[in-house]
Amino acid sequence: MKEKLEIRAKSGTYPLWIGTGALKELAGFLRGRNPSKLLIVTDPTVKQLHLDTLLEEIGDDFPYGVYTVPKGEEAKTFREYERLLTFALEEELDRRSLFLAFGGGAVGDLTGFAAATFMRGIGYVQIPTTILAHDSAIGGKTAINHPLGKNLIGAFHHPLAVFYELSFLETLPVREKLSGFAEIIKEACIGSPDFLQELMEEIDGPEKLVPENLYLPLKKGILVKKHFVERDEREESVRAFLNFGHTLGHALEKEMGYGRIAHGEAVATGMVFALSLSGAFAGFCAPYEGWTGDWLRWLETLGYRTKLPASLSPERLAERMKLDKKREKGRLRFVLLRKIGEPVLTAVPEAAVIEHLTRMKGA
Ligand SMILES: NC(=O)c1ccc[n+]([C@@H]2O[C@H](COP(=O)([O-])OP(=O)(O)OC[C@H]3O[C@@H](n4cnc5c(N)ncnc54)[C@H](O)[C@@H]3O)[C@@H](O)[C@H]2O)c1
Ligand SMILES: O=C(O)C(=O)C[C@@H](O)[C@H](O)[C@H](O)COP(=O)(O)O
Ligand SMILES: [Zn+2]
C-alpha cells in the first residue's frame, strides 16, 4: 500500500509518496524533470544495505554520481559540507542537476543544505530510510552543526519531492527505531489526544515498531508536521511547536556527545522535561500525577530515558540551551503543553529551568 500526500508550502507544493512501493514513483518523477545529472548522497550503512535497490529504480536514463558521507552527526560538519560541494563541482553538476538525499535525517539535513547553497540553490529529492526521517524529509529545514551547537547553520529549502519507501525501515536497529518513534510521539503530543492514545495502545513495546504497524502512525505524524509547516513555513509562529522537547534535547546531544545519545532519544527526555515545566507554567498536570503517570511509564517501558544522567550539570545544560533558536531577547522559550494537542510557546526563567532539571536527575 502506498499513497501520495502533498505539502503545500508557501514557496511551493511538492509530493510525498509514502508506503511500500513508494520508490517506484521516483523514475517517473525524474523523467518529468529531466535533470542533467544526479548526485546520490548516502552513508556507508545505507549504501551497503539499499543502494542497489535505489540504482535499480533509477535505471540508465540519467548520469549519476554517488557520494558517501560519514554516519550520523559526523556528516553535519563544515568539513563534510565543503567536501560534498567540492565533489559536486568536480562531478560537474550544474543548475539543472539534482541532489538525492538517500538516508536518515543527518544525510537529509546535510544534502538539503548543500542543495540550498550550491550555485545559490538547486533542487533536491528526499529518499528517507529511517523512521525519524518522516520528520526531517519534509518542511525544508536543512542544517549543519556549529562547534557551539546543533543546527545553527542552515537554510529553509524544500525538497522537490519525497519518496518514503517503508520497506527500507526493516533493516533499522531497534535503537534507531526508538529514536524515530520519539518524533511521532512528539507529533501526537502537539497534535491530538486521540493520536497519542492510539500510539500508547498500539505500540506497547519496541518490538511493535515494524513497517506494517507504522504506516498509520507515520502518516498521522506527517499530517501534523504538514499542518504546522503549511501555516508557518519559516518558524515565525506556530511551526515552533514542532520543536517540543528539542530545547533540552539539542543541549543533551551536545553535552553528552553526538552519537552517544540519538536525536530522538534526547528529544524524548526533552519532552519529559517540557512536561514538567508545563505543570508549573502552562497549567498541565504535574509529572506522575494522573495522565502523565501513564505516559511516563509508557515511555519507560519503551526504553526511553525519563531521568537525567546524574553526571550532567543542570547549570551547564541551561547554558547550552541559550543557543536555542527560539530564544528571544535573552530569554529561553520552551514549547509547553496546556493539554495534549494544545502547545504554547512560553518564556521560562533560568532559575526555574535549573530547578526542574535538578528535580529530573536520576541515579
Ligand atoms: N530537518 C528537520 O526538520 C529535522 C527533523 C528531525 C530531525 N532532524 C535531524 O535528523 C538527524 C537524525 O536523523 P536520523 O536518526 O534519521 O539520522 P541518521 O542519518 O544519522 O541515521 C541514523 C542511523 O541509522 C542508520 N540507517 C539509516 N537508514 C537505515 C536503514 N534503513 N537500515 C539500517 N540503518 C539505517 C544510519 O546509517 C545512521 O547510523 C539529526 O541530525 C536531527 O537533527 C532534522
Ligand atoms: O520542522 C521543525 O520545525 C522541527 O522543529 C522538527 C524537529 O524535529 C527537528 O529536529 C528540527 O531540525 C529542529 O529544528 P531547530 O530549528 O531547532 O534546529
Ligand atoms: Zn527533531
Annotated CATH architecture of the largest domain: Up-down Bundle
Q: What is the CATH level 1 assignment of the largest domain?
A: Mainly Alpha
CATH topology name of the largest domain? Dehydroquinate synthase-like, alpha domain
Using only C-alpha atoms, the radius of gyration works out to 20 Å
Pathway: Metabolic intermediate biosynthesis; chorismate biosynthesis; chorismate from D-erythrose 4-phosphate and phosphoenolpyruvate: step 2/7
Function: Catalyzes the conversion of 3-deoxy-D-arabino-heptulosonate 7-phosphate (DAHP) to dehydroquinate (DHQ).
Family: Belongs to the sugar phosphate cyclases superfamily. Dehydroquinate synthase family.
Protein name: 3-dehydroquinate synthase
Explain what the structure shows.
This protein has 363 residues and is an alpha/beta fold. It has two domains: 2-171, Rossmann fold (3-Layer(aba) Sandwich); 177-359, Dehydroquinate synthase-like - alpha domain (Dehydroquinate synthase-like, alpha domain). 45% of the residues lie in helices and 19% in strands. It contains 13 helices and eleven strands. The chain has helices at residues 26-33, 44-58, 78-90, 105-117, 133-136, 174-191, 193-202, 211-231, 246-256, 263-281, 291-302, 314-321, 350-359; strands at 2-9, 12-19, 38-42, 64-68, 98-103, 123-128, 141-146, 149-156, 161-165, 333-339, 342-347. The strands form three sheets. A seven-stranded mixed β-sheet has the order 1-2-9-6-5-3-4. A two-stranded antiparallel sheet has the order 7-8. It has a two-stranded antiparallel ribbon with strand order 10-11. A hairpin with a 2-residue loop joins strand 7 (141-146) and strand 8. Helix 3 crosses helix 4 (105-117) and helix 6 (174-191) crosses helix 8. The mean pLDDT is 96. The structure holds nicotinamide-adenine-dinucleotide, the ligand O=C(O)C(=O)C[C@@H](O)[C@H](O)[C@H](O)COP(=O)(O)O and zinc ion. The ligand O=C(O)C(=O)C[C@@H](O)[C@H](O)[C@H](O)COP(=O)(O)O binds at residues 135, 139, 141, 143, 151, 183, 235, 239, 242-243, 246, 325.
